[in-house]
Amino acid sequence: MSGHTKKAAITGFPVDQSRSPLVHGYWLKKHGLEGEYGRVPVPPETATAFYKDFAASGLIGANVTVPHKEVAAAACAHLDDAAKAMGAANTLWLDESGALCGANTDGLGFLGNLDQLAPGWDTACGTAVVLGAGGAARAIIWALLSRGFTTVHIVNRTFEKAKSLEDQFGSGTKAHAWDKLGTLLGEADLLVNTTALGMTGKAPLEIDLDTLPVSALVTDIVYAPLETGLLKQATKRGNKTVDGLGMLLHQAVPGFKRWFGVRPEVDKELRELVLADLGV
Ligand code: ATR
After folding, report:
1. Rounded to 5°, angle at Cα 243 from 242 and 245
2. Among 17, 142, 156, which residue has the most ligand 1 atoms within 8 Å of its CB, making it the best to mutate?
3. Is the same domain home to 126 and 172?
4. pLDDT tens per residue across span 37-52
5. Residue 191 and residue 242 share a domain
6. Which of 71, 124, 220, 223 is 20 to 30 Å apart from 229, CA to CA?
7. What pLDDT band is residue 280 in, cutting at 50, 70 and 90?
8. Closest protein CA for atom 14 of ligand 1
């Protein structure tokens, strides 16, 4: 590779578990591009300095994983609307003047996955029920509101966390305690699990879908296993479902396009490659 090879990387701490190098490596090869995508561990005590002086890293851009998404956003001169709303950036690049720019593509990843696997899913843009109130929920609520959903119910074990998201996003969102779920499901066009419940090694998500209209779409951000207990239960009663793997893959698309100049596809081969690597 020449000294002009464009280099990007996953940054965070740790970064060993990240599938981003596999995803970007697949796209670089598929498009025959001369570029590199590696792993750069950034120990927490060096994070502020690393992102503030990002240009010194020799990278043209980066993805950011836990625990540095907030520190990275704070170091950016420019943020897109999603990163501003979340106070967290997962995609970085340098503009022509060398200023650090940040985006948060988690919400776009969520939308891209549903657009690909359930075309027309947002026709009604009506009522969504979101389970959980962490960082993933924040990205998904932002995405649903930006797409035009009129009502987003946020249901969380800890009511206060759901309420703070309602306070942030305002009209259109409403926080609820878990015991209201049965009634809320009766109104839902879309049900999203943003908690880690149902993931291999975690407690199952205990939920009764009896009141959910059969026309509602059900999706989960968990992708190991690919077909979670929630999705199995939904499929059995006739609801359309979308698994969470595509959100992980689609959130990588905007960064690749910006760094390497080609908008890549989330194709079947990529899904299979990542699933094999996950051992799912
Ligand atoms: P992330 O940033 O990935 O979304 P997080 O901030 O840790 O992760 O959020 C995890 C979400 O899963 C939270 O909504 C959490 O509920 P609490 O706010 O009550 O902690 C939810 N969650 C985790 N374990 C749970 C459990 N056993 N039962 C119900 N909800 C759970």
Report:
1. 130
2. 156
3. yes
4. 999 999 999 999 999 9
5. yes
6. 124
7. confident
8. 132
